[in-house]
UniProtKB/TrEMBL annotation:
Origin species: Erythrobacter crassostreae
Protein name per UniProt: Uncharacterized protein
Domain of life assignment: Bacteria
């Protein structure tokens, strides 16, 4: 997923995809229409503003304007955001090291709508059976409330699957989702402030309460240009939302379509890849199939990479990554962040480039073999077919025994931001990214890194010479 980058040269595929999604809008003129969402009607003459209908456009829910809109619709859209970005479908009878990551399996999280006034939070969650918000409506009084969206990572559900990697994965994904939603809302013209925090929301998992298992990441988006005007007389379900609505002229529509197209992706194409390591080896994708895989990158179809690149492209990639990393270090001066590029070279050599100073080092032969084994054994990927591996790491030992866990969570959020922004910059050179979080990074860690670090690794490939290996979804 590409995030955190101004849209300077829109990808035609992204814009086309976003334009298709923008066609599927409905107009909510009354609360009665909530029950008729399966038969949307587009009425340009209606007085109310547009509300997204398709699930993929749920992130555009704040397109609602000055007119009345149903809180149930708002809550449903927020639930669909979580479905779109945080599908949690663990595969049965699958070894843990292959159950994550997957095209459709990220991590469990809870979405909350929080009304805030006078420093008091009033959280609400969505109840799908009755299409309504659940929470303490009786605690609300008539008047204006600030609006906040909380994405709460469910560490209790992820820890049994991933053990000691659970806190890392949960925090990384929560930080990613926060960045994605913030940038998309920003592209739609809204002023949004974001925060990352940690909490013992579900209570500590250890006697001293300081274990990493007690960390519970929360990503918050504060809408600074919108307020809810709550009126109990409005059947307890309707409210006025005052949010500026972007004027979608031709130029703006293309900008918004591109922003949404970059963020959401259609399902992967029906390309036959049999289970097992040997599936698809040596097969050739047609141009349309390759394009389909590229478009489905938001669902992380792993194991599709391009051929090695030339020296000029490698130098340009290093420069791009170095600049992106320098920018991030200036934004996060208090966090111990490091990033390296591992670049396989002709002759079975691997160079390690420190993105802080662009110094290049020879990767030790023994560690190089471990790295090759990590890809070959687990993913059946020839290391020589990968142009570059971005490896981010952050020290967290200082935060393990901290009284508050928020610095640890914030550092992990920075981890995802570093990797994603570097990938965005690299994309201008024609590269695309395939994230390997947690397990893959752990295997790379075993090659050369020390204990006490968390990792996030990304494969940078080229949009040519496609060769399928297999998708985790079919394992």
């Amino acid at each position: 997923m590409k995030i955190h980058s101004p849209i300077t040269s829109p990808d035609p595929d992204d814009q086309e995809r976003g334009e298709d999604l923008l066609k599927d809008l409905i107009v909510i003129s009354s609360y009665d229409q909530i029950s008729a969402l399966d038969a949307p009607v587009f009425d340009p003459s209606a007085t109310v503003k547009l509300v997204p209908y398709k699930e993929e456009l749920a992130v555009g829910l704040l397109l609602g304007g000055d007119e009345r809109m149903a809180l149930g619709i708002f809550a449903e859209a927020l639930r669909q955001v979580m479905q779109c970005f945080s599908r949690f479908e663990p595969m049965n009878q699958t070894p843990i090291h292959r159950s994550y990551p997957s095209p459709r399996s990220l991590f469990p999280a809870t979405a909350q709508i929080v009304f805030v006034r006078d420093g008091v939070d009033h959280p609400f969650t969505y109840e799908p059976e009755h299409h309504a918000l659940c929470g303490g409506f009786e605690t609300l009084t008539e008047g204006e409330y600030d609006l906040r969206l909380d994405i709460v990572g469910d560490l209790q559900r992820i820890s049994p699957l991933y053990g000691d990697l659970g806190p890392t994965l949960c925090a990384l994904e929560t930080g990613h989702l926060l960045e994605q939603l913030r940038d998309t809302l920003g592209a739609l013209g809204h002023t949004v402030r974001s925060e990352l925090s940690g909490s013992d929301w579900f209570g500590p998992h250890s006697q001293n309460g300081n274990s990493l298992e007690s960390i519970f990441p929360i990503a918050s988006l504060i809408l600074e240009d919108g307020r809810f005007n709550w009126s109990p007389e409005e059947s307890g379900r309707l409210a006025k939302l005052r949010v500026p609505v972007p004027q979608l002229n031709k130029a703006d529509r293309g900008r918004v379509a591109t922003a949404i197209g970059r963020l959401v992706c259609p399902p992967a194409p029906a390309v036959s890849l049999k289970p097992g390591r040997s599936a698809g080896l040596g097969a050739t994708l047609s141009a349309s199939e390759a394009q389909g895989f590229q478009r489905s990158s938001g669902h992380f179809p792993f194991g599709i990479f391009g051929a090695p690149t030339g020296s000029e492209e490698r130098d340009a990639l290093i420069d791009q990554c170095h600049q992106a990393f320098q920018d991030l270090c200036s934004e996060w001066p208090d966090h111990q962040i490091s990033a390296h590029l591992l670049m396989p070279q002709p002759g079975d050599q691997v160079r390690k480039i420190n993105l802080r100073d662009k110094q290049s080092y020879a990767f030790p032969e023994a560690n190089q073999q471990k790295l090759a084994d990590a890809f070959g054994t687990s993913f059946n990927i020839d290391l020589n077919t990968i142009p570059a591996i971005l490896l981010f790491s952050a020290r967290f030992a200082d935060f393990v025994n901290a009284k508050s866990s928020w610095p640890y969570i914030q550092t992990l959020g920075a981890a995802g931001t570093v990797a994603q922004r570097i990938c965005v910059n690299a994309s201008s050179l024609g590269f695309f990214a395939r994230p390997f979080k947690g397990v893959m990074a752990k295997k790379i860690e075993n090659g050369f890194a020390m204990d006490g670090q968390v990792f996030y690794s990304v494969i940078l490939g080229k949009r040519r010479a496609w060769q399928p290996y297999y998708s985790f979804e079919q394992i």
